[in-house]
Specification:
- The protein has 111 residues and is α+β, with helices and mostly antiparallel strands.
- The chain has one domain: 3-Layer(aba) Sandwich (Glutaredoxin), CATH 3.40.30.10.
- Helices cover 48% and strands 19% of the residues.
- The chain has five helices and six strands; from the N terminus they run αβββαβαββαα.
- β5 and β6 form a beta hairpin.
- α1 crosses α3 and α2 runs parallel beside α4.
- The longest helix is centred in the middle third of the chain and has 13 residues.
- The N and C termini lie far apart (38 Å).
- Bound molecules: glutathione and FE2/S2 (inorganic) cluster.
- FE2/S2 (inorganic) cluster binds next to loops.
């Protein structure tokens, strides 16, 4: 495994919810990443944002890690969930909150 893969793997495995994104949760640099940030903030999930714009290697490495061609990428409990479209669809169907609770992730107001 390359260094970048080890780094990605450790972020994915050591954070219950991690969003690989462009920019930061406080300052998203792309609308797709911004949408996922808004949804996670709205449902009150605790998550870590990892900015792929910090490193070209990371930006490429995350696509290979998940075999998914775009950013953002959301991971929950070590599993790839999806990008912006999937997250938005799950949220709109009311499934994202249920999914997080089932995974044992704390969500504000959904105890
Ligand atoms: N439909 C995608 C939208 C995300 C997307 O198209 N991302 C593009 C533009 S930000 C991307 O990551 N392109 C490759 C790159 O910028 O490295 C989703 O559901 O997440
Ligand atoms: S950075 Fe241009 S669409 Fe995301």
């Amino acid at each position: 495994m390359s260094g970048i893969n080890d780094y990605i793997d450790s972020e994915v495995k050591s954070n219950d919810v991690v969003l690989f994104m462009k920019g930061t949760p406080g300052f998203p640099q792309c609308g797709f990443s911004g949408q996922v940030v808004q949804i996670l903030d709205y449902i009150g999930a605790d998550y870590k944002g990892v900015n792929v714009l910090d490193s070209a290697e990371l930006r490429q490495g995350i696509k290979e890690y998940s075999n998914w061609p775009t950013i953002p990428q959301l991971y929950v409990k070590g599993e790839f969930v999806g990008g912006c479209d999937i997250v938005r669809e799950m949220f709109q169907a009311g499934e994202l909150q249920t999914f997080l609770v089932e995974k044992g992730v704390s969500v504000k107001g959904a105890a």
